Amino acid sequence: MVAEIVCVGTELLLGDIVNTNAQHISKELAHIGIDLYYQTVVGDNKERVWNVLDTALKRADLIIMTGGLGPTKDDLTKEVAASFFGKKLVFHEQTYEHVRKRLESYGISEMTESQKKQALVPEGALIVTNPAGLAPGIIMAQGDKAIVMLPGPPKEMKAVLSECCHLFINRLSDQVFVSINIKCKGPDELPLKEIGEAPVADLLGDILDNENPTVATYAKEDGVLIRVTASGKTREEALTAMQPVVTKIAEILAGKIAWVKEEV
Amino acid sequence: MVAEIVCVGTELLLGDIVNTNAQHISKELAHIGIDLYYQTVVGDNKERVWNVLDTALKRADLIIMTGGLGPTKDDLTKEVAASFFGKKLVFHEQTYEHVRKRLESYGISEMTESQKKQALVPEGALIVTNPAGLAPGIIMAQGDKAIVMLPGPPKEMKAVLSECCHLFINRLSDQVFVSINIKCKGPDELPLKEIGEAPVADLLGDILDNENPTVATYAKEDGVLIRVTASGKTREEALTAMQPVVTKIAEILAGKIAWVKEEV
């Protein structure tokens, strides 16, 4: 199972906001063992969203989209995704009622035309009510491909993802991933950041080519991090696969570089 | 001039870090009026970095890459970019001296093999010394296409970008962009967040189709934002293009929705 994240929003391309959605979804996918090879950000432009979706569906099975589900003309994620799977947008009574009630609770009794648009969803899609806002989550599946659409505002995205989309995505994976961070510490006379990634990588040698667990080094502003990531059918299986490599790293670093281990 | 951002790093795909680099570069590009249609994140994998670069160069003139310039085996950005333009990696004396001196200042007198790799750069490339770290910035140009490579750690990326790459990128643009945020305020009895994007968009109507300046609405956690963005050959020209539309928005909102204006 390979996933890909597509974030739709011109505000991301203008640098007005940082893409915390991509990080949150990536972390969730890593935890449940779904591979992710690409994240793409595209603006509110029909042709470009279509092209990105086309590329994504050629190289991944599950596309998770965020943004572009709002009520305005430049919100076009569901229109593009629907037409991609040859579906029309149809009226969804439950979503209409959800939007109406939510607006009513704000003291707004009359819906605008744009607000009514929130109740249009691709025919045949699974609809996940948004507990934190108006735009629902939408799950479309066709053959062995699926598109999950989540609202853009981070609070709503997280709420819809954990509500129900999570269950759907979880079922697609039969793997669990576990990571351990090994944070290298410099000798007392050197600040952490000055140990450097290269000497640590040189010490680790061939371990960096290992497959399960994978081992990677990262230069951080406060030092060097070694990340060991194992996968398995259960958390225990992943931890068992990880153990011999962590022990080997500890042996290699012993007496040369001090370190601390953190499970993540 | 159309640019595209490609961030290389498996840690971004695992959700270990949030992609602040993409935001910073996007903002810089917007300020100097270079269009950006896509941001892509790809892991430390040679084939996939190649594919992303191939796609990016087909739809953009300037590719700004971050990450993958470090000393370890999984750092492969410069190798891929060099081979893409049919160039070899060659030894760069000045970078070698920079790395040697910087390590010496940390009290490290002997370079590892991995550290020496930092001094290999694509032949014919412009090299920008990194004032905050080891890996230099690299600018490659061929025909009307250019690739700018920046180190991944945000402090180093910013330092190299503002050092010299900025000058190079600035020269590619003859446009300046200016944005104004109009933050809508609800009536006293309603919290800001409950005004809703839809009624604001409905009021604005056709103004949302305007081209210069563009006008867009955004649902924020504390309310609704209208962003007006104008371009021109100078900041004054952009502000002049913006003025009539801002005045029209003020007239439309008058008496219906309170608002404050912020230049950005």
Automatic annotation (TrEMBL), chains A, B:
Q: Which residues form the MoaB/Mog domain?
A: 4-171
Signal sequence coordinates: none
Q: Fetch the Pfam families from UniProt.
A: CinA_KH, MoCF_biosynth
Record's superkingdom? Bacteria
Q: Which SMART domains match?
A: MoCF_biosynth
Q: Which CDD domains match?
A: cinA
* InterPro entries per record: CinA (IPR050101), CinA_KH (IPR041424), MoaB/Mog-like_dom_sf (IPR036425), MoaB/Mog_dom (IPR001453)
What is this protein called in UniProt?
A: Damage-inducible protein CinA
